[in-house]
Write a structure and sequence with these properties.
α2 packs antiparallel against α4. Strands 1, 3, 4, 7 and 9 form a 5-stranded antiparallel beta sheet that branches. Strands 5-6-2-8 form a 4-stranded antiparallel beta sheet, covered by helices on one side. The chain is α+β, with helices and mostly antiparallel strands. The chain starts with a helix and ends with a strand. The radius of gyration is 33 Å and the shape is elongated. Helix content is 18%, strand content 26%. The longest helix has 23 residues. It has 4 helices and 9 strands; from the N terminus they run ααααβββββββββ. The structure holds calcium ion (2 copies). The site of one calcium ion (CA) has 8 residues, from α2. One calcium ion binds next to α2.
């Protein structure tokens, strides 16, 4: 009995010791959770869809008028002046029609690293209908000149409500003719009524790009632009339209259809 009591006493004295030994061995879990939230984008790609289209300047414009469209400075401040303003939208719009524009945004972390800004030369040439009267000799009534001067109108032909952004490309190689003027100085007139438009007769290609944005929106169907053309009398179907993208004023895609609608030629 004495031995049993003695053993019991040992167990009693050991138990607190064991208990205290267990409590001291609590593991300290090191949780270093680094959650960095970064907005991945290319400079100018305001909506982050990896493309530069007319939608991007619309996002910039909506941001500048206080509508809740995120436009991080590293995506939208394309002249790195520390502000996202309409000028940035203008430059992105011009880049969307492939005009050579350097889009340089600030880094995501740095604030206001003001590097030199790219200048915007908005040349909306409104020279239209140059009456190039081909002086035919009065005596000889020979064949008509093969090339004629025409005006071609491009339009959104369907009713998709208000549009806030629209862009398209015209391949006019099938016409065998040319749009007069080059680059941003192509002889086109803006008929869209949109706040910002840009067009570009692409160098080295028989193609024209158009992009327009308007933060309020313009109703459809609607004429977009009219361009001067010289060449054989074309059919509307000779102007191949591609890369059409259109949204309503709050950046929801709409199924706008763009087409050459009317062609009028002067002999
Ligand atoms: Ca985009
Ligand atoms: Ca800016």
């Amino acid at each position: 009995m004495k031995i049993a009591t003695y053993l019991f006493a040992i167990v009693l004295t050991l138990l607190p010791a064991l208990a205290s030994a267990q409590t001291t061995s609590t593991t300290v879990s090191s949780t270093t959770s680094t959650t960095l939230v970064t907005f991945e984008c290319t400079c100018g790609d305001a909506n982050g869809d990896t493309r530069l289209t007319a939608v991007d300047p619309l996002v910039v414009l909506l941001n500048t008028i206080g509508l809740p469209f995120a436009c991080p400075i590293q995506c939208c401040d394309v002249d790195s002046d520390g502000r996202v303003v309409a000028t940035d939208g203008r430059v992105i719009l011009e880049a969307a029609v492939f005009l050579p524009r350097d889009l340089i945004c600030p880094e995501a972390t740095t604030t206001t690293t003001s590097t030199t800004s790219t200048s915007t030369t908005s040349t909306t040439s409104t020279t239209s209908t140059s009456t190039t009267s081909t002086t035919l000799p009065p005596t000889t009534t020979t064949t008509l000149p093969p090339d004629q001067t025409c005006t071609v109108t491009f339009a959104v032909i369907n009713d998709v409500g208000l549009i806030g952004a629209v862009q398209f490309e015209v391949d006019y190689a099938p016409t065998g003719g040319e749009l007069t003027g080059n680059g941003a100085d192509v002889n086109c007139i803006n008929l869209s009524g949109m706040g910002f438009v840009s067009f570009n007769d692409l160098p080295g290609r028989d193609a024209l790009r158009f992009a327009g944005v308007d933060s309020v929106g313009v109703a459809t169907p609607r004429n977009l632009l009219q361009c001067e053309y010289v060449g054989p009398v074309p059919e509307p179907g000779d102007f191949l339209i591609s890369d059409v993208e259109a949204t309503d004023p709050v950046v929801n895609p709409v199924p706008g259809i763009v087409s050459a609608t009317s062609i009028s030629c002067n002999p």
